[in-house]
Amino acid sequence: MSNTQNTGCAFDVVSDGNPFNTNLVNAPFLPGNLPVAVRYAGGCSGIDAETVAKMPAYFEAAHRGLGKIVAFSGGTMNTEDKVVDGKTVRTPVGFTITYVPSLLKALYGAYAISTTPRTEQMRLDPDFGGVVLTSHGDRVDYRQDRAVIMQVDAADIAESDWSKDVIPYLTLLAAWQKQGVKVAVVAFNGGGVTKKEIYWALERGVPVIAVRGSGRQTDAFIEAFEKGEAKVPGVGGDEVAVDPALVSIADINDAETFRAALIERGVITEEGCGCTE
Is the pTM of this model over 0.90? Predict the structure, then answer.
């Protein structure tokens, strides 16, 4: 489904241990989509407002010429109400890494999807009907093509782990990679969950593009990696150094370094066209 066809964002709820919807599993192989999938992981906590304001242009420049890849994230968004032509409309606030798939969809036609853990009782917005995920007002980004909520089971409405969707989506990425899909995890800022995403991705052989200067756990990983201290479990269970071939480092102040990393990982080509191989 696609918002460009006025069908809205498809919405699935998946309980722990159950498979994803077939359309999600087959996302890189759907007609018109390219066999490329990138997860955009992290947050924006502690980043100054000026840098946040520059993020859309940074991601646009780095991805210029992108084809219809599968772009996905945690899928959450924050909104505010504005009066436009006498009508109250609800619009996104600011910019964070979870907005990137929808941005790439609007700019380059990417297939935007998300997986989000169910951490509280979900509810429908009383005025606009959107799906509200938390008491803080986090909601599902309606601009995507498909959104998936991961839950322990239908009865679980207590606070749960925000990393609950990480292993399922990384397992899906690793499976796609074995089928010839170009995959990567982009790490930007982020806390404890992002740390898990980085190391669990590398443990599974999924490449990571870490953005230097974005802060918190992404910068902590880069520092550990460059010192040779970033480790993952090896085949025998003992910790081994992260494979350097799986890590690319971009700079938050230079979109071309990010673009070079995307080219290195086969997400885009040097000529600016989406990867088709």
Answer: yes
